[in-house]
UniProtKB/TrEMBL annotation, chain B:
Pfam families: Transket_pyr, Transketolase_C. Gene3D superfamilies: 3.40.50.920, 3.40.50.970. The keyword Oxidoreductase applies. It comes from the Bacteria. Residues 4-179 form the Transketolase-like pyrimidine-binding domain. Its cofactor is thiamine diphosphate. This is 2-oxoisovalerate dehydrogenase. It comes from Oceanobacillus caeni. Keywords: Oxidoreductase, Thiamine pyrophosphate.
Length: 359, 326
């Protein structure tokens, strides 16, 4: 443990591997990561990128509904998600599909969400995972309540909640952080500052220099990390999670990254930002950087990468094809999960709906 | 049998459920040391400790939002919103979050939570302390809305609400908190949610009401009784899901219907009931439906509230109009 929260001011950006793949040796030695974990980080980042780009294509082909891409944010998601145990809770928003997958959602399940099948947002039984949240910052107090319950039940579980820079303007963000600090619950607030809330840039979201410094106001630790550096993201998340597990309080992490694509498939970024803006961040690509690092360490070759790309493409293609043969569940199921038991009026509506569809 | 006020019955329901199930916890503003501004949780923190009864920071959305997360991870929170007028601060957490979590997650998660909140008028409170906002929550599938009008019902309905697997809004008419003492059994008991209660039988007309207006409707009905007119009075007790059968059965019998509530008229519980009747038993009606409700203005200042709210005079006039229609 480097104990980053003691050594760094929230406004300082923490980094281990820079854009050229050069790394801070001392920090890396201190992390003492095994090769398997390093390769696992790469596995998920690369798979995430391929999946994300594939989903954009599927949307253009009319094969899935609206999709919120995460390309450019793989390091922040993979670094933080791999720092969690399976007994830890994850509370995601709609841009954390990669985190959800690392924490237990299958590709098949996610496809059923994107294709609008009922139950598509049902996290698997054995995954400590909340459903995808669409309301900005709505999930923040839920995560605090979840962590609070773990504490009350004396469970060893930490909750990580994900949100973006836009969410930090919402009341629920402030209320959530304040409650978490007041009750000292085991939680990590992981903000992916991807610079854009649809068309609103970070500098119009807040006049705070950083998001991390907002932690000070709630009496908790805050840290700003290079969100395109998977090792730095892993380390700060790991330290924050273990700190929370020991009962030493919540942490606000700001991972500085970039939303390379549009907000969703229903948005067009050319309307509000320049190609130069995007290009500047493409140069800081989290995967390219980490691959340089791995290749320098002899943990990855170009051939191996090409094999992986091919394997992922085939896997995704197969998952999509398989899923497209899945029969739809009966539409009247939509009435079955409103209450534990549908009340008489709802049952009546269910019958009418069912009969009309069967006509 | 010993007699309790409504506030004592509410307190007892929570105390007994907390004894029975250690996952039942209470959170809200001033609910701990102070025992709530109306003393609904008086002594509960002392009895169950600071890990069961929480004084929260002053933030309604934070209270409900964290209660949703607590409920999703195994607890059974009872959250208090100090006055119903403050609930607008947490509409998203109630209607877009608590109400939909079961549906959203395809049944993986449920939110067994009760939101208690005092409301209704005639108590000379400041702005946004007396508003009847119950209809807002009828319009959100996934929620149940319960409103007791007496100590016995309050205890049984609150126990049912705490044992429910879905979120229940439990709205308590402030003016009835200490207005009467009635017999309340000592042991815990449930009154089913979604069932109305016919509190006075009659054949000449039906009055459907709930909460704060129940005692004055009953009083008016008794006055008519002395003149030989038999009014049937239904205390709805739950407004979502509403007891359609009880309303239909009564209207089929009497052929005349009046609805009384404190909430504003447009888009209210009365509008829903009138629609149900027109859909289900229009031809049983011998007269147009009458609504005696608050007017379509913000809840008025203290000097106006007695005239603005349903009162015995307005209800009496309503009944006369209802009965005189040929």
């Amino acid at each position: 443990m480097i104990n980053i929260f003691e050594k760094h001011q929230p406004t300082e950006m923490y980094q281990i591997v820079n854009e050229r793949g050069e790394y801070n040796e001392a920090a890396l030695n201190d992390l003492n990561l095994n090769n398997e974990l390093l390769q696992n980080m790469h596995y998920w980042m690369l798979k995430g990128r391929i999946m994300d780009q594939r989903f954009l294509k599927l949307h253009r082909q009319g094969r899935i509904g609206t999709y919120g891409p995460f390309s450019g944010q793989e390091a922040a998601q993979v670094g933080s998600a791999l720092a969690l145990s399976k007994t830890d809770w994850v509370v995601p928003s709609y841009r954390e599909s990669l985190v959800s997958m690392i924490h237990g959602t299958s590709l098949k399940q996610f496809l059923s969400y994107l294709k609008g099948y009922f139950g598509g947002n049902r996290p698997p039984e054995d995954a400590k995972l909340f459903p995808i949240q669409v309301i900005i910052a709505g999930q923040v107090p839920h995560a605090v309540g979840c962590a609070w319950a773990s504490k009350l039940k004396k469970e060893d579980s930490v909750t990580t909640v994900y949100f973006g820079d836009g969410a930090t303007s919402q009341g629920d963000f402030h209320e959530g952080l304040n409650f978490a600090a007041v009750y000292n619950v085991p939680i990590v607030f992981f903000c992916q500052n991807n610079q854009w809330a649809i068309s609103t840039p970070f500098e119009k979201q807040t006049t705070s220099e950083t998001i991390a410094q907002k932690a000070i106001a709630y009496g908790m630790k805050g840290v700003r990390v290079d969100g395109n550096d998977v090792l730095a993201c892993y380390q700060v998340a790991k330290e924050a999670i273990e700190k929370a597990r020991k009962g030493e309080g919540p942490t606000l992490i700001e991972a500085v990254t970039y939303r390379r694509e549009s907000h969703t498939t229903a948005d067009d970024w050319t309307k509000y930002r320049s190609q130069e803006d995007v290009d500047a961040w493409v140069k800081k690509d989290p995967i390219v950087r980490f691959e340089r690092f791995l290749m320098n360490k002899g943990l990855l070759t170009t051939e191996r990468k090409e094999e992986m790309v091919k394997q992922f493409e085939e896997e995704i293609e197969k998952a999509v094809k398989d899923f497209e043969g899945t029969p739809l569940p009966p539409a009247h199921e939509t009435f079955d999960y409103v209450y534990e038991k549908p009340h008489p009026q709802l049952l009546k509506q269910r019958e009418e709906f069912k009969n009309r569809l069967e006509r | 049998m010993r007699k309790l006020t409504m506030i004592e019955a509410i307190r007892e329901a929570m105390e007994q459920e907390m004894e029975k199930d250690q996952n039942v916890i209470i959170l809200g503003e001033d609910v701990g040391v102070n025992g709530g501004v109306f003393r609904a949780t008086d002594g509960l923190q002392k009895k169950f400790g600071e890990d069961r009864v929480f004084d929260t920071p002053l933030a309604e959305s934070g209270i409900i939002g964290t209660a949703v997360g607590l409920a999703m991870n195994g607890m059974r929170p009872i959250a208090e919103i100090q006055f119903l007028g403050f609930i607008y601060q947490t509409m998203d957490q109630i209607c877009a979050q608590a109400a939909r979590m079961r549906y959203r997650s395809g049944g993986r998660f449920t939110v067994p939570m009760v939101i208690r909140s005092p409301f209704s008028g005639n108590v000379r409170s400041p702005e946004l302390h007396s508003d009847s906002l119950e209809a807002l929550f009828m319009h959100s599938p996934g929620l149940k809305v319960v409103i007791p009008s007496n100590p016995y019902d309050a205890k049984g309905l609150l126990i049912s609400a705490i044992r429910e697997e879905d979120p229940v809004l439990f709205f308590e008419p402030m003016k009835l908190y200490r207005s009467s003492r009635e017999e309340v059994p000592e042991e815990p008991y449930e009154i089913p949610i979604g069932k109305a209660s016919v509190i006075k039988e009659g054949e000449d007309a039906t009055i459907a009401t709930y909460g704060g207006t129940v005692p004055m409707v009953l009083k008016t009905a008794q006055a008519f009784q002395e003149k030989g007119i038999n009014l049937e009075v239904i205390d709805l007790r739950t407004i979502s899901p509403i007891d359609t059968e009880a309303i239909k059965e009564s209207v089929d019998k009497t052929g005349r219907l009046m609805i009384v509530h404190e909430a504003v008229k447009t888009g209210g519980v009365g509008a829903e009931i009138a629609t149900i009747v027109s859909e289900e038993c229009l031809y049983s009606l011998a007269a147009p439906i009458v609504r005696v409700t608050g007017y379509d203005t913000p809840y008025p200042v203290q000097t106006v509230e007695d005239d603005w709210l349903p009162n015995v005079e307005r209800i009496t006039e309503g009944v006369e109009n209802l009965l005189s229609y040929q």
